[in-house]
């Protein structure tokens, strides 16, 4: 009876760890998506520097929809600071912001990845413990 109670407790712990692992995998996917977006933004900023003033271009409006417009300045862009606050920054400053964000995302990806490795090890040990309980 005591073994059965311990086994149930271990199985419940395993389920919690599995759920935690799934949540961490979702976090990892979100981090990867954000990193892809940062790469695209970095590429767009590099392209802006190559344009001549007054050139027509397509501007993303969202969900794969674009508007046609003329770039009035290739030296400045507007950066969302959060809380719907936007300010003007030079392209160089915007690139630095993107680099900082990419660094933070890379650190987060490593941290979550390490957490998943640890979680996987914990699940393996727990599985072995349960098997010992079943056999013993």
Question: Can you walk through the features of this model?
Answer:
This protein is an alpha+beta fold and 136 residues long. It has one domain (2-135): Helix Hairpins (Orthogonal Bundle). The chain has 2 helices and 4 strands. It has helices at residues 2-50, 91-135; strands at 56-62, 65-70, 76-82, 85-90. The strands form 2 sheets. A two-stranded antiparallel sheet has the order 1-2. The chain has a two-stranded antiparallel ribbon with strand order 3-4. The longest helix has 49 residues, at 2-50. The chain is rod-shaped.
Entry summary:
The chain has 136 residues and is an alpha+beta fold. The chain has helices at residues 2-50, 91-135, and strands spanning 56-62, 65-70, 76-82, 85-90.
* Count of helical regions: 2
CATH first level:
Mainly Alpha
Widest sheet, order of strands: 1-2
Q: What is the domain total for the residues?
A: 1
**In percent terms, what proportion of residues is strand?**
15-25%
Largest sheet: 2 strands, antiparallel
- How large is the radius of gyration? 24 Å
Structural class: alpha+beta
The rounded distance between the terminal residues' Cα atoms is 13 Å
Enter the CATH topology name: Helix Hairpins
Tertiary shape: rod-shaped
- Average pLDDT for all residues: 90
- The assigned CATH architecture is Orthogonal Bundle
Could you state the order of secondary-structure elements as H and E?
A: HEEEEH
Relative helix content: 55-70%
Tally of strands:
4
Low-confidence stretches: none
């Amino acid at each position: 009876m005591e073994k059965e109670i311990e086994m149930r407790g271990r199985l419940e712990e395993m389920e919690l760890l599995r759920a935690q692992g799934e949540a961490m995998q979702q976090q990892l996917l979100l981090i990867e998506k954000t990193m892809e977006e940062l790469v695209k933004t970095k590429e767009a900023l590099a392209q802006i520097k190559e344009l001549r003033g007054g050139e027509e271009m397509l501007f993303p409006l969202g969900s794969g929809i674009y508007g046609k417009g003329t770039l009035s300045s290739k030296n400045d862009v507007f950066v969302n600071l959060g809380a719907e606050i936007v300010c003007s920054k030079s392209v160089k400053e915007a690139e630095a912001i993107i680099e900082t964000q990419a660094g933070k995302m890379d650190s987060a990806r490593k941290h979550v990845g390490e957490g998943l490795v640890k979680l996987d090890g914990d699940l393996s040990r727990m599985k072995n413990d349960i098997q010992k309980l079943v056999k013993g």
